[in-house]
Amino acid sequence: MIELALKKKLLSTEGELELSIKTTIENGEFVAFFGESGAGKTTVLRMIAGLETPDAGRIVVDGETWFDSRKKIDLPPAKRKIGFVFQDYALFPNMTVAENLRFALQKGENPVIVDELIETIGLRELADRLPSQLSGGQQQRVAVARALVRRPRLLLLDEPLSALDHAMRIRLQDELAEIHKRFKLTTILVSHDPSEIFRLCGSVYRLERGEIKEVGTPSEVFVKERISSSFKFVGEVLAIEPCEMVYLLTVAVGTQIVKIMATEREREGLRIGSRIQIVSKAFHPMIFRAETAKGNSED
Ligand SMILES: Nc1ncnc2c1ncn2[C@@H]1O[C@H](COP(=O)(O)OP(=O)(O)OP(=O)(O)O)[C@@H](O)[C@H]1O
């Protein structure tokens, strides 16, 4: 279990911002930090990694204290068992894939893990190539493998797929899901992409101005809109579930996730990742009375 209690004064463009986060994350969970730019998501990851020092608080991982401001404990990054993957792949350009992975080994550590990872992450054909000879997606797969070399307790992913195109993102999302299943590693993902979070994560923390404003499953946090309110929009299919005689599609539309019904014929040819256009044949809005200032419906 990971216990986080973090406080830090940040300087945002709108002035001082008090970051204050308190939560626990169970072992093996895959959670997302989601929220507006500048909410403090990256700073939280950097504090967990030991790259940034909180003003106050505690970080305890499986009973081992990594940081405690009262007890003056502050383990250096190399002593914290984390794997970190950033948006830019940060591979050493002069080293091959295999050398990049070997370089991540700690002194005296058995290099067999490197071969295992090259196999499990499917890098065998790329092992002797330099990063400049790899696509962005391939480089990011190497970066993920490298993050796993030290058998971390915690994997931190800071928008790892945001520089990739749509098709490559989907592929790597599948791989990340597979890696998570295989290694059962507690993972924290920073992402701006609800569809990515929906695919990968069991829970989402929505951060706003340095605080956790909402925690829940991706459905609870993102599926606010159950009725279509516009004539036409384009979305990406995240899930297809049979539901009685029809199908329930979960679709990412912009930053929202909606659920819509589809007939057998409409569902034909659709798969996860398909882009679809949703058209409301007749504009028939449903109107609900707004809440009063007291929070009760008006009579
Ligand atoms: N060491 C620091 N000291 C003071 N302020 C900082 C420090 N690091 C970051 N900040 C500020 O804290 C705010 C939060 O930054 P952070 O990068 O954590 O946000 P974010 O939610 O990850 O944003 P984005 O989605 O754009 O990456 C920003 O306004 C940033 O300028």
TrEMBL record:
Keywords: ATP-binding, Nucleotide-binding, Transport. It comes from the Bacteria. Gene3D superfamilies: P-loop containing nucleotide triphosphate hydrolases. Transmembrane segments: none annotated. Pfam families: ABC_tran. InterPro entries: AAA+_ATPase, ABC_SmlMolc_Importer, ABC_transporter-like_ATP-bd, ABC_transporter-like_CS, P-loop_NTPase. The keyword Nucleotide-binding applies. Residues 2-234 form the ABC transporter domain. PANTHER family: SPERMIDINE/PUTRESCINE IMPORT ATP-BINDING PROTEIN POTA (PTHR42781), SPERMIDINE_PUTRESCINE IMPORT ATP-BINDING PROTEIN POTA (PTHR42781:SF4). This is GTPase. It comes from Hydrogenimonas cancrithermarum. The gene is modC_1.
